[in-house]
Amino acid sequence: MTGPGEGVQGNVWRSWQGLGGRRWIPVLVLAAALPFAIDNQPFDVSSRYLLIVAATCAAFASLALGLNVVVGYAGLLNLGYVAFFGIGAYTYAIVASVQAGRHWPPVLGLLLAGLVVAVVAVLLGLASLRLRGDYLAIVTLGFGEIVRQLMVNLDRPIDITGGLNGILGIDPIAVGGLQALGDQDYYYLLVGFCALFVFVMLRWERSRVGRAWMAIRDDELAARCMGVNVLGFRVMAFTAGAVVAGLTGVIYYSWRASVFPSSFTINDTVTVFMMVILGGMGSIPGVILGAIGITVLEEVLRPYGEYRFVIFGIALVLLMRFRPQGLLGRFSFRPRPRPGPPAEPAEEDVAAAPEATA
Amino acid sequence: MDLALHQIPQQVVNGLVLGSMYALIALGYTMVYGILEMINFAHGDVYMAGAFLGWGVTLLLVRGGFPVVAAGLVILAMFLVAMLGAGLLGVTIERLAYRPLRGGHRLAPLISALGVSIFLENIVSAQFGARAQLVPTAHVLPGWQVSLGSATVSFVDGLVVVVALGLMVALDRFVRRTRYGTAMRATAQDREAAGFMGIRVNQVIAVTFLLGSALAGIAGILAGLLYTEVDFFMGYLAGLKAFTAAVLGRIGNIRGAVLGGLLLGMVEAVSTPFVNGAYVNVVSFLVLILVLLIRPSGLLGEQLPDKV
Amino acid sequence: MRRLRILIAAAALLVAACGSGGGGGGGQGTVKAITIAAAGPFTGDLAPVGQGGLHGVQMAVDDWNAKGGIDGVKVQVETADDTGKPDQGVTLASKLASEDAVLGVIGPMNSSVVLATAPIFQRVSLPFITESGSNPMITESGWSVAHRLCARDDTQGPADARYATSTLGAKRIFVLDSKTAYSQGLADQFEQAAKSAGTTTQRDSLTSGTKDANPIATKIKAFKPDLLFFADEGPEAPLVLQGLKSQGLSVGSGFAYMGTDGQFDVKQFIQGAQGASEGAYVSNIAPDINSLPASSKSFVQRYTARYPDLGPFDATAYEAASVLLTAIKDAPVRNGKIDRADVNRQLGSLTYNGILGIPVHFDSKGDVQGVGIFLFQVKSGQFSQVKAPGA
After folding, report:
1. pLDDT tens across C202-248, in order?
2. Is residue B229 part of a domain?
3. What total number of domains does chain B contain?
4. Can you tell me the ipTM of this complex?
């Protein structure tokens, strides 16, 4: 995989500017100043609570960015996406928590989590990315379920995951002597990671890798004919999304200091999907907005319990029908016009060429 | 070990019952896939809706555990309501969430189906709570039991197997022997050509959904009677497993769905004594992944060449 | 430029929405608002048990408010519905911790949720009294804010085992848990005690939330047990009993069943099992509302009139809330604020006499002495108390 940070400091700044980085500076300033704004807010809401919500937004923005690579760029329906969120978190918790009795250096734990997620994603990807969209969706769904079952059941005879009761007492992230303690530290950490991911993705978008992804997404057959290594790029996208989720998982759950299997269900994957689709597949600012919007909506609608998912469900159907590109997306979901015999009744249109699984 | 072996006859019975239900649900998946080449994610939730509709009948017709009319009538009413309600629901979903997206990108109907599934699951859980609702079978179903060796077969076990197999045979006959069935098969084979031949494709698709969903609804009410309860999440798991069964047999093939369903049910039940109860689900999903990776055309399928 | 405007608009929306959606009391915490929180599974699978906890708290607060509240201030109840899931509990606990008006928590009710949220409460010195969390670790982990008003697994398990082996004479016992912290802990305690009494045991699990109990029923039947001990929060028990019955193993001569705590629920365990639970035993760490001392008669009448669907922990929740409110009342008011640490200190030192009939006094760990184990049997569709196997 081409490393994004390979450039020297000067190169980094130049490419940042070239990527339209200037546009992001006000956003960064806003994000950095937010905790102070919250502290002095005039509303009758607990400041601590607002900060918690803000940090949660940052974490889910990262998640949405990762899924954006998988679905928005490469067009892969990964319905087990949150499983990687969980694998990252659990890997870290297993090597750095009070309950596990192990206290690895947190950075090492973070790297290990990233590695484990990457390996799993590559294996799963290599095995299944040859399948067409709907099959891939089911395989990833099944994978997500298997991961969740493993989380629940790997507690006897040897206790690895803590079962239904999760892992408690996860170590805070620390680098050298600096420990991240408290909501404000983690807010900055989560925003920082999000910014890093944005940077990486901006570079990718404009690179050959990004163009290859979108070629595959829009017309796989043509891309293959042009010599694009479809499988390789798919695995790359799949893994990139997974690693983003895994690393975010480490930070997010070390903040909450505990992790449980009940956080990684299909409803949670659907929530991240909502963020990406609502914000706009393929658009970085779009999915970030989507993440913030959905996270806030979830908090606001929390008293209504399951009804918020009722709304999500309807929204997905309506979005697909009337505005599949979401707010800011570029992925139009419409097929390119094809030459061929025109079909009279519009409903009988069959646009895609027939395919079979390999 | 012989403790485990001793259970085998009963587990075979369990497997047959479980497998019949998987097969019923798998039929809906396979028919829709055959015609539209799309996985209907919401199918499992249609099964759940059928179960709840049947349960709703008991709210009206069963008071304090006792049926207010003849028990047979109650059961019949449950079946009819579940079947019609689920069938109607399936057709409506097709009309509203899938048909407008036909001809577009393949991802769109999948995401739409996901939305429908989420909607159904959560509206039921929001309305009725996440707790399971009791289906009062004690005085509605005959309680006789038959012993076959060390296995006990209860009335409801027999009911499930007989109804499921009967319906599967009927469907098979319908698809193979009737004109309309032929029309369905033609549409599945080549939608465009079928349209040119004068087949009303939209209607055929709607009927496919109707039949598949009605079968799922019946499976739902059977599950309700078997487990004596219904809950909002029952469709998710059952749906995944039924899809596994459909793929296992051969996706798009009705006999394949039956074969896959029975096989999967057996595998699950017979493996239970040997693995910790909780891992049985893992077994099913592993089967799914392995089949898709190694032999996606299923047990009854031939390896299809890459068509370009 | 357009993007920048969109982002600013989004940020404004964020702040505005939080302003309207965020709950909780005033940021200053002046004694114009006293809030206690009720935490537990009020919706979801475990709602039959959880609702009782909520009602008990609501009734206690209403009773206090009817007498003028605390120093003239009406007490508010904030509900924290964790649906029995630790991750929800953690999110809610963080929220409660950040709201200064919340001075104490009744609950959480599930041991796994308590264990996950206790560190959060401890960090902000927010005291909690759990009316049903029975895992010993709750009070053995050194949290000064932890209190419980029920018995512990290490009392209940051995007591139940004693009854099963001595009184019921079981020699082969199948021990089943539902994989939660509460269930596994209790089943472990029971199994250990049963084994040391010389019985043959087999152990297995039925994951909480599973609906199909037939496979596990087959396994149980194959073991030919004299007794099935199932430490379950409630939803799975009727399914297992019915599964066993349909495979030919009914509660009766030669086969006994003992369930625990959350299964003490008429709707779920008796009606839900459709007759399969007749003759079954349930051991509870909280007293049946109808077995309260005569002095609590008026409370029982008022309560059952208002909340006819009784659960196992209604009385304990009411008592716990009353104790907490007493502690808040006794805590000093400094500069118009009541400090959580002061409330906690009061809790540690008071002795309260209420409806339970025993003096409520928390020891240094947070446990109360004298809470017993109560044993019931299902007879003719009702729970009837059996002589308690000794507390």
Report:
1. 998 888 877 778 878 888 988 999 999 999 988 899 999 998 988 88
2. yes
3. 1
4. 0.83
